[in-house]
């Protein structure tokens, strides 16, 4: 398998994007979404009920996704979030 490496610009964008996850507004949104939709959306597509523990930006912030738009957020379990993130990193140009 071919490996891809991030450029300095991509690393900066990722770090900049991650800053919101340490804010009080993010904590509140995360808590609210997990309260109203406690199960992983990806697992639910297969008929599996797995408790969601993470909030994913459907379109990544680093790729122009809206960071505060709840329509751009989905609850995922840790394994599904890790798989989605890995796919996104591997498919970047």
Would you mind describing this structure in some detail?
This protein has 93 residues and is mainly α. The chain has one domain. It contains 4 helices and 2 strands, in the order αααββα. It has a two-stranded antiparallel sheet. The longest helix has 13 residues. It is globular and about 35 Å long. The two termini are 16 Å apart. 9% of the residues are buried. About 5% of the residues have low confidence.
Q: How many domains comprise the coordinates?
A: 1
| Large-scale geometry | globular
What value does the average pLDDT take? 87
Query: Which structural class is indicated by helix and strand composition?
Result: mainly alpha
Strand content: 5-15%
User: What summary fits the major beta sheet?
Assistant: 2 strands, antiparallel
Task: Please give the radius of gyration in angstroms.
Answer: 14 Å
Spatial arrangement of strands, main beta sheet: 1-2
Count, helices: 4
Low-confidence stretches: 8-12
